[in-house]
What does this fold into?
Amino acid sequence: MSNYMNDITKQAHNGRVAAIITILNEQMTDLGVINRAIFTHDVLQLLCEAKNAESLDKAIIISRIRGILESISPRNIRRVRINSRILQKQQLLWLKDLTQDSENQLLWSEEIILKKPNIFHKISTSNQRDSSLESLSQQPKFGQLQQNLIWGVAVSVVLILMGFLLYNALQFQLLQPLQSQPQNDIESSPKPPETLSSAQQFSQGVKIAEEAAAEGKFADTRQEWLEIAQKWQQAADYMEGVSPDFERHDIAKDRASVYRKNQEQAQGEADAMNN
It folds into this structure.
């Protein structure tokens, strides 16, 4: 099974749309979302479908898809347009239908730009490419050997510098007062005011969740992830504070569960940076 998933992941990284959809569908089953895709005009057109509009929360869907695709880093794919609608019967020409009648077909549509791979991914890919070229030639020319030697020295220097910077950062953290368990970083978040109505708590929860999802697109420090985790917790607290007799109580209960999962993911990102 692991060999199969490794092969799918490799195909997805190489830009194969069928493999990308396989991974998206597998990792979004908890949301009840089914995905289809077509790569056209340098844009990956994604169609996200679910049985109800509540399962297609814009902030959650965009955040989840961005995270999955950037972890895959599909080759030659940077622009992604995400389209969402209520689940319909299989349509072979769904992109044409959406283009001709987007207002009636779609709940919402959003284009995102994927981040470029980091330096470690680039180095790994380059090393793999160099190995492949080396195996094709038993007796490489002197110029090629010289070029490979220069590249190897450059990579070594970069890795040494980054290791030095990482060591200094760890030393700095050790000099700071020891902190309690990571989970305590967000336990002090304020609870929703009891004076708010259920409608106001629901609206406030959605607003904070959208802020957390938007900030999660660009977070790259531990403090930023901690603040995002705190916002997901606040959003969940607001949803859990909605009264059972409120007309959208079931939606609030479902979103509270999703927001708790997002809180755990954000806290996990922060903990990973602390290690």
Q: What stands out?
A: The chain is about 60% helix and 10% strand. Residues 142-175 form the longest helix (34 residues). The beta strands are 34-40, 43-50, 79-86, 108-113. The first strand starts at residue 34 and ends at 40.
